[in-house]
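Students often ask why we bother encoding 3D structure as a string. The short answer is that it lets us treat folding as translation between two languages. Here is a chain of 276 residues written in the first language.
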Amino acid sequence: MRQRDKAEAFRRLHDGPPILVLPNAWDSASARIFEDAGFPAIGTTSAGIANSLGYPDGQYTPGREMLAAVERIVRAVAVPVTADVEAGYGYSVVAAAEIAGRVIAAGAVGLNLEDTAEQEGTLLDAALQSARIAAMRETANALRVPLVINARTDVFLASIGDPATRFDRAVERAAAYHRAGADCLFIPGVRDAETIGRLVRALPGPLNILADPGAPPATELQRLGVARMSVGSGPMRAVMGLTRRIAEELHRDGASASMYDQAIPYAEANALFLNS
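And here it is in the second language, the structure alphabet:
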């Protein structure tokens, strides 16, 4: 399937129901497992890729290394892939346009762009962020790939400002990003059904909710009108938790029941890549 066709197919997945449940991969193996399970599209996780490359999350990973990992994931699967590019590895409009072009060059058909300068712990100016999104849209149009832009605001996730103003502030920012060219609006850190339902009604575009402890399951999010649920670094951290358990068992007992009981057989793991 051509990249343009993949992008259009990915955009249509936001038109549900059903809700788009988007798993987030950090390497080719996790991407193939998600694809093999039947997911129609895959996202990447910046935290998962960063940690797998030896960096902390939060724009410490060089952009070239992040995009190289995205490209490997794209090559491993046939389904559409959307790339988490954090805040774009530079806060200028030029940097945003450049990263959009690099995402397309890597073969991905969508991207997440957050509005936090993570190392500074502050929100970017909303007008600047809107201009960056507009530049991404212009780049995608010039390259004739209808990139699906998932614009993230961290008002709730980072607990920024007076709690009484967070809802209106998040809606104001997300609406501005939609006007600038974003296709989907990502507001992580919201867990209660009442607030999620209010966001669905207030926003001008599809809403993406992060699945984390305390958030409603996909069935409830679909009932509320949420278009997309992603899981972020959750699966990668679960694998890290299993690896820690294996390490502790090996160190203590010289064997590991957790490893033997849950490992994918060698032939099955290898077969995931024989025809990819």
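Translate back mentally: The chain is about 50% helix and 15% strand. Keep this in mind for the problem set.
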